[in-house]
Amino acid sequence: MKPYNTILTERHGTSGVITLNRPKKLNAINLEMKNEISEALSDMEADDEISVVIMTGAGTAFSSGHDNSDAPENISEFVSLKEEDLLFTLDKPTIAAIHGYTLGDALQQALLCDIIIASENTTMGFIGPKVGGLCYGSFTVLPAVVGRHQANELLFTCEQFTAKEGYRIGLVNKVVPQEELMPASLDMANKIARWPQASIKFTKRAMRMALSNEMHKGALSEGWRAILGAMANE
Fold first, then answer.
1. Domains of the chain listed by start with CATH number
2. 145 near 116, Cβ under 8 Å?
3. How far apart are CA 181 and CA 17, in angstroms?
4. How big is the CA angle at 202 (ends 197 and 207), to the nearest 5 degrees?
5. Which pTM was predicted?
6. 62-108 pLDDT, tens per residue?
7. Residues in the chain where the model's pLDDT stays below 70
């Protein structure tokens, strides 16, 4: 598969794997990474030999979230959320294999996947408001996953929580030891890939429809305009 600067891509049987690959930066997500994820997702969507897409991270973390050292002029495109929309609307099932720090934008990436498998050492948190931002995935999906009141608490407090707690509230499908993370994720992918892919695709589309909310997107767009406008005036 083609080389990238910030991610790795490979195929394991019928699974396509995207690995966030900036381990010295705890896989912090910059605009280049988001654009490369988008390209890889599009390629895997078009590849008939790939049935399931797995996202994971190199090194000690899935990702610490947004790279605050990214060029300031990139912020408007970064928050355009084109990559998140592509991940959310991908027809092929997606699995997030998370470990270590999975914070902010990284947890949004995982949340927009269809299934989350976490290692026991995972630390999660929706920290967008803590750094003056917004959490797109949380607006569209989180209340449906954990309930409105639990979602409010996670978003308003920005508190971090463990994989065990993520499993308790229904955010995580399975918690495994670190060494079993990829085997468990590939095993889940193989269970999905054994069935007719047209059936899986349209099942996913139907399930996704209930989570699509233009009012959420409108509120998010308005919020980012206000935040970016305030940043420009500082």
1. 7-181+188-233 (3.90.226.10)
2. no
3. 13
4. 125
5. 0.93
6. 999 999 888 878 877 887 788 988 999 999 999 999 999 999 999 99
7. 136-139, 212-213, 215-216, 224, 230-234
